[in-house]
Structures are given as structure tokens and as C-alpha cells.
Design a protein that fits this description.
The structure is a homodimer of 340-residue chains. With 340 residues, the first copy, chain A, is of the alpha+beta class. The first copy, chain A, is built from 15 helices and ten strands. In chain A, helix 4 crosses helix 7.
């Protein structure tokens, strides 16, 4: 059965486009407390996996050994916009572990934040792997390899101990013994698992009391770092940052390519995973905003409310339609999950 | 019932994202010869409507009065990339009708062709309404108003005679008496109709023998102009241009925002309309390429074959998945419609 329509885009009096998808919400006890659509088919969380991919960085002791703080940990979990606040910190971190941009396996791509990208064009500067939105994650991988004193070359391969440590952490948190994998945009492996299973893993990060002490401590530090630095996790004006700020420290959010979104709610011990079938970021952003609103977390921030219900503008700035949560999502009863 | 999956995107061994949609193919006699999904729900063709929006320009005699050739007619049907080949021709055309960019109701937006956009950034030049991808269509509207010697101001409003002429032509070609409308990105009205009805209208442009002589002549000129100038209808490296060139003059193609594609096949007297439910251009491009291939029109051009089956690359340029037509589309029996 096809997944339900979660988000719709109108123009005039008609619905012009729709985004279908699935949502899983779990608690830290491993219970699936909400499901909409197919939450059992394995799917890649893409960059929404980053908080888990960063666990070995902290658990291994590498973060402490290199004196990393919340800013670096936020960057390890980031899909950043390549702004100076990101690139200068990643460059300094690379230097601290005795590496350079040439050790990064991720390729270069245009910087996402327009003013910075335009400035680079004017200056004739090409992007480097440090500008790659995943450069913090990769620097985290390199840090673990350095700390373990093993080869950094090949750290992005599936069979490298760093990636195997990521897979082990994900298996243990999610309860999934089988993790099909593919190569992510940044060259690192990405592991597929059902939305329900990833929601369970995220819930354990939200409330890590049942985890072994080193992992619980790592989870707490990473979630705290994400919540403390929304713009380092994403960038200026990005949905992740706007929504995290609107939640006032009550939730950590992480977008993933192809319409994924992950959310960690410490106060309620909830993990949320959603995927838009067609891969549209606009659909995932409005869907997660609707869930946050239903959970009483979103607040009144104007920019966040405009992700929840976004005006569709023409090139003269006139409103000609809107993007909004569809009935299958708004009427799904998510309100009942609010923390008591 | 939801529309079928037309296109799928893989990563590793898994299907990561899918695009659902509907397809209608009609012949010039008004017969729906192929339908997949819901082809009866009214939907905006967006820029795929442009060949119809350009009919009054020719039928009214305005094109002849202003000495417009195939290049201007191709631009009237275009969603262009704002390259110099487009903007210099639109600017000269505006001058020929005694108008300037200030008469254009469409707003400015960044130029789509990266090398030109980067050059504009380096030179500190802002885009004007002439760079708007719809500036040819708008200059066509202005030309009709000039030719009729009526007010050009407000030409983009639904009740202006130019827009009413567009609506009349669309009603007559499609057989739809009711045309709900919304405001397009460029500020002009866009008229919604079922895919089946728009396919019928396109088929009449493909084989206009049953139309009144002035409209038949206008249809032939516009289709010929589009086929003669694929890059003026779109831009360097754009799917419309690549696919039209690959068809070797046997089909006219026009993309529309939110996942629409229109195709006119004169040799077979066919009109094709498709819409991807979620609005993704990548889905519409692969779906129309698959249809063209099934109809024996696509040929062996490498760039066109890579729209039909597109590699998904990571930031190091390695193939990590593919975008391809899904079984509901490849097994639909479109081959049987090939011109005998």
C-alpha cells in the first residue's frame, strides 16, 4: 500500500503537488509509539545518520584526547553550509589531528550559502573538500583513526575499523542485525534500516539511561552539542537551524538527503524518523515542522511557522499558493505523545 | 487510487526514492490512446502550456506585423536559461514592439545557466525581468496587446484580452469548457485541465489539419520553431534541448514547473502530457525520455540516454546508484503507439 500524502502544495484553488512519506516515533524502551506509512522497509537515513556516525568519535576517547568541544561535536553531526564559521573550525580541527584537507575523502561541491558562494565566485576561489557539507563528519572519522593509531587512508571504506565501529553502534542502538549499505554522496558508507528501527536508535540517544555508560555519555554530549549549536549543524537560514532554535533547546534535529529527517527529543525520550518517498527536502521540512508543532515543541517563531506552512511566491513576491501538512499528518493524533 | 511509480532512484542495492505520476497520450482525433494513472484531475501544465499561450501571437497577425521569425516564436514558447542568446533576442524584440523591460510583468530571478550567472556575479550585474525564463512568453503577450492597440499594462491579468484569447484557444483545443486558473511563477495566469484534455490539445498542435486555417497555420509555425531551436526553447545542456535534439526534429518538447512535461509528435499526430505528483523535474525528465524511447524517437545520443537512465554520482564522481524508469512505465506497452 502506498504511503500517505504528508505534505501538499497548492496554487490557486488546486493542490498542485503532493509528497508521500512515512513516519516512525519510538520511545527509549524500544516501543514504536507512532507509525504512519511503511516504517519497516530498509531505507538510508543519509545525513540523518550523522549523530550515530559521530558516536565512535566520543566513545573511543578521541574527542577527549584531541580536546574537542561542543563546536567540533556539532560539526561532526553536521551537513553544514560551508560558511566561514564551519570551514575555519574544520580546518583548525584537521590541523589539531595532524591532517589536512587532502586527507578528506569527500569531494568538493559548491557552497550552499549563497552570499559565501557568490563571494568565492567573485574572488575566483574554488571549493575544497573542507567546504563539503560532510567535512565535519569526515574529520571525525579521521580523528578516530588517528586516536587508534591506524591508517587514515581508506577510512571511508566499509571495511575500515572506523566504519565498522559506526555499523556496530547502529546495530546495537537499533536492534537491526542486518544493515544493507550504499555509498553516500560524500563517499562514506551509509547504512539502511527501517524507519521504526532508526526511530528506536534516536530514542536511545534522547534518553540514554539504558545504554552502557560510555555510550550514554557520548549520546548526551552529542545531543547537547547539536542543540547548543544549531547553525554549526546546518547553516544560516537553514531549516534545521530555524526549527532547532524554534524548539528552544527541547529537540535536536538532523536533515538527510532524499527527504529524510531525524529528531531527538530528550525531555520526552522520543526518537523520530521520517522519509519523504520522492526525496524532496521541502516535504521533509514541512512534515517535521508539523510533527514538532503537534508535540508542542515548535513555539511561535515566524520563520519556523513558515516552514510549517510556507507561502508559494511568484517572481514578484506575491503569494500564489502554500505548502502545508496534509490531513493524513495533521489528523494522525501525534498530540497524544506530548510529554506529560 | 494513487498514481503508479514512474521513476525510481537507487543507491547500492536499494531503491531510495520514487516518483509517482500520470501520463496521457492522445491523437489528433481526440482519442486518448494511452493513459497511466489519473488523467482526469485538473492540473496546471505550467510552462508546458507555453505553445498554447503563444497561439494568439501568431493567430492575431501580431507575429507577422512585427516581422517575427522562428527564433522569436521559439522564445515565446520557452522557459529559457537567461543566456545571452536568449536575452539579446528578447531585448531586440521588446525594442521592435516599442516596449522595454519595464513593461514586463514577470519578476527577475537568478539566471539558470551557471557560467552566465557566475559571470554576472563577478561583474556585479543583477538579473532583470529579461532574464526571467518566461520573458519570451511575456514579450509575446505584449506583442499581441500592441498589435491590437490595447493597454499593455495589466496584460498579465486573467481578464485582459490577451489572457482571455489564451483561455479561448485552450478551451477550443482541449474541449474543456471550464478552466480553473492560478497565478504562475511569472505572474501570468495558468489554466488547469486534465492531462487527457491537454494531451488532446497537444495532439491538435501535432496534426492541425482539423483546425481552422489560421490556427492550423499558427500551430505548424510554433511547432516548427520549437523543433528548429531547441536551445532557444530551453538552454545549453537542458533536458528539453538534449531530448529534442536526440529526437532529430521528430518531436517538440516543453517542460513545465512542478514535474510537468508536454510533447508534440507531428509524424504520429500524438500529444503527450505527463505530471509527476511530487513536482520533481528529475522524475519528469526520465519519464518523458522513457516515453520517447518507447516511441522509437530517442535515438542513441549519449546525453539523452543519460536522462533516460541517469547515474547517481557521489562528490568524487563515482557512480553509486541510478535514476531509471520504473516497471509501471517500461512495461506499459507504449511501443504499440509507434508511427507505422
Amino acid at each position: 500500500m502506498p504511503n500517505p500524502i504528508l505534505v501538499e502544495i497548492t496554487r490557486g484553488d488546486l493542490v498542485e503537488s503532493v509528497h508521500r512519506g512515512a513516519i516512525a516515533i519510538a520511545d527509549a524502551g524500544g516501543k514504536l509509539v507512532f507509525a504512519l506509512g511503511d516504517v519497516e522497509r530498509p531505507i538510508y537515513p543519509r545525513s540523518s545518520l550523522k549523530p550515530v556516525q559521530a558516536l565512535p568519535l566520543v566513545e573511543s576517547g578521541a574527542a577527549d584526547a584531541f580536546g574537542l568541544g561542543d563546536e567540533e561535536l556539532a560539526l561532526a553531526c553536521a551537513s553544514h553550509s560551508g560558511e566561514p564559521m564551519h570551514t575555519t573550525r574544520v580546518a583548525a580541527w584537521l590541523e589539531r589531528i595532524g591532517c589536512t584537507q587532502h586527507d578528506l575523502a569527500c569531494g568538493a561541491h559548491p557552497v550552499r550559502y549563497e552570499p559565501v558562494w557568490e563571494e568565492m565566485i567573485r574572488a575566483g576561489r574554488a571549493p575544497t573538500p573542507i567546504h563539503n557539507n560532510c567535512s565535519g563528519k569526515h574529520t571525525g572519522f579521521l580523528s578516530v583513526a588517528r586516536h587508534w593509531d591506524i591508517a587514515t587512508k581508506g577510512y571511508e571504506h566499509h571495511d575500515h575499523p572506523v566504519q565498522q565501529a559506526v555499523a556496530k553502534a547502529l546495530r546495537e542502538l537499533s536492534g537491526e542485525s542486518e544493515l544493507p549499505w550504499g555509498v553516500d554522496g560524500c563517499t562514506a558508507p551509509n547504512f539502511a534500516l527501517p524507519l521504526a528501527a532508526f526511530a528506536r536508535a534516536l530514542a536511545k540517544l534522547a534518553d540514554p539511561r539504558s545504554l552502557p555508560a560510555p555510550r550514554a555519555s557520548a549520546a548526551r554530549r552529542l545531543v547537547r552539542a547539536m542543540i547548543a549549536h544549531p547553525e554549526l549543524v546546518s547553516g544560516t537560514g537553514r531549516a534545521c537551524a530555524i526549527l532547532m532554535r524554534a524548539c528552544g533547546g527541547r529537540a535536536a534535529l538532523k536533515t538527510g538527503a532524499e527527504g529524510y529527517f531525524a529528531c531527538i527529543v530528550p525531555e520526552a525520550g522520543l526518537g523520530i524518523a521520517l522519509k519523504i518517498d520522492d526525496g524532496a527536502a521541502r516535504g521533509a521540512e514541512t512534515a517535521i515542522a508539523a510533527i514538532l508543532d503537534k508535540l508542542g515543541l515548535l513555539g511561535r517563531d515566524k520563520a519556523a511557522r513558515e516552514i510549517l506552512c510556507a507561502p508559494v511566491l511568484n517572481t514578484r513576491g506575491r503569494v500564489v499558493g502554500e505548502r502545508r501538512a496534509a490531513p493524513a499528518l495533521t489528523d494522525a493524533g501525534i498530540e497524544t505523545l506530548r510529554a506529560q
